[in-house]
Inverse folding.
């Protein structure tokens, strides 16, 4: 079963990467950019095939992918420095020359750098957008098709007695739920004539009633029954809208209210499709917060590992850690944790994965998509400003000058990947 989770995750990663790169490929082809290669994975090529001028293939390590767009960088401007103090080509000029070599005579108009800023934005944003779209589709399947964890209008547990101390004494009476015949697993259809679709309805019906015999309709073992429950009035803490007990001047506020003695069952409840954007938006906000503070999270993770501290189970994880979580989900043997709940958690993991790919790729750093998007925005703003001032078109932005930064970012990402792999292997995260 652990292997099942791993396989699902690997397939999910491959699909997410393949569609991400397709999000770059399709608009690039539509704008007539020369696209020599579209590959899934890195390392040695396992399979490839030429189709309409593009080599499509799969490489040995399916943990990434790339689309090669010819002519990414424009030629150097007049007066630009082409060599360093040692007489060697600068990194920027090397990138420009490699870019120029990808364009054959007669194909000059198919270079990526010749696209307008809006078209560049479309090509570069296409990849992250696909991941966001996948997250929305998966969230729809999860919320609308399977359901989200929620308190159900169903009895999950019944306390042994009515007690203000939390422990049952010999003089403490049984709860009204116990006396009235309620049992674990009973689904509450109505309370005092008020239909109850969820646990909030049950709470409101009880709170709005009195300490008098009340008709409660339940469904048990597929058949409906009518019970009579008589709540008792007890002093209970006041709970605010945030779910926390209200305290004023160091004193817990209390109120006398009807008490039955039931706790809700937790299960998957199908949601409306209008809940999907909010669900994805909330997760995106959380992931974006982690991505922005990534150096801090990575430092804390490394520090805890080096000093032998217990790993924070909410810390960031790499691809190995995500695979471990997927295996733990499908391999868990917990009572009540059915295949449906496991499927929901796997889908939620894939949603988080796609949102992470979106947020990470939107960082305004080369060689990430966000870096190219930032370059296109700068280019468009500069051209618009020149037009407003009646100046000549300044041409495409010379993003090749940022190649030293690109190499630095790439080295940092490689280092981060190595750290996450080591920590995930020797100090794995555990969700159970």
């Amino acid at each position: 079963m652990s292997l099942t989770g791993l396989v699902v995750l690997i397939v999910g990663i491959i699909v997410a990467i393949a569609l991400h790169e397709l999000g770059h490929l399709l608009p690039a082809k539509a704008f007539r950019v020369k696209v020599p290669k579209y590959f899934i994975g890195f390392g040695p090529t396992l399979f490839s095939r030429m189709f309409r001028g593009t080599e499509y293939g799969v490489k040995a390590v399916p943990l990434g992918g790339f689309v090669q767009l010819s002519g990414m960088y424009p030629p150097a401007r007049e007066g630009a420095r082409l060599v360093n103090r040692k007489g060697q080509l600068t990194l920027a000029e090397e990138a420009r020359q490699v870019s120029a070599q990808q364009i054959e005579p007669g194909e000059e108009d198919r270079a990526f750098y010749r696209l307008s800023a809006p078209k560049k934005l479309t090509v570069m944003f296409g990849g992250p957008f696909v991941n966001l779209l996948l997250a929305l589709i998966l969230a729809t399947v999860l919320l609308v098709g399977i359901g989200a964890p929620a308190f159900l209008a169903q009895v999950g547990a019944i306390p042994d007695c009515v007690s203000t101390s939390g422990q049952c004494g010999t003089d403490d009476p049984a709860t009204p739920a116990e006396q009235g015949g309620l049992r674990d697993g009973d689904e509450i259809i109505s309370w005092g004539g008020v239909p109850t679709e969820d646990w909030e309805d049950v709470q409101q019906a009880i709170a709005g009633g009195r300490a008098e015999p009340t008709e409660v309709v339940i469904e048990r073992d597929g058949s409906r029954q009518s019970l009579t429950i008589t709540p008792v009035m007890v002093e209970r803490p006041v709970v605010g809208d945030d779910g926390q007990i209200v305290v004023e001047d160091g004193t817990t506020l209390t109120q006398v209210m009807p008490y039955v003695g039931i706790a809700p069952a937790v299960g998957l409840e199908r949601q409306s499709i209008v809940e999907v954007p909010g669900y994805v938006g909330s997760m995106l906000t959380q992931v974006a917060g982690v991505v922005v503070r990534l150096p801090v999270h990575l430092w804390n993770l490394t520090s805890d590992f080096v000093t032998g501290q217990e790993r924070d189970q909410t810390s960031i994880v790499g691809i190995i850690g995500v695979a471990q979580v997927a295996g733990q989900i499908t391999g868990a043997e917990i009572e009540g944790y059915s295949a449906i709940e496991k499927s929901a958690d796997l889908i939620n993991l894939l949603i988080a994965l796609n949102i992470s790919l979106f947020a990470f790729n939107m960082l305004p750093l080369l060689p990430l998509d966000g870096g190219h998007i930032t370059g296109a925005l700068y280019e468009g703003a500069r051209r618009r400003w020149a037009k407003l001032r009646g100046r000549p078109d300044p041409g495409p932005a010379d993003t090749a000058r940022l190649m030293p930064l690109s190499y630095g970012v790439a080295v940092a990402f490689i280092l981060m990947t190595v750290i996450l792999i080591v920590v995930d292997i020797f100090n794995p995260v555990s969700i159970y």
Remarks:
- The chain has a mean pLDDT of 89.
- Residues 117-146 form the longest helix (30 residues).
- The two ends are 15 Å apart (CA to CA).
- The first strand starts at residue 37 and ends at 51.
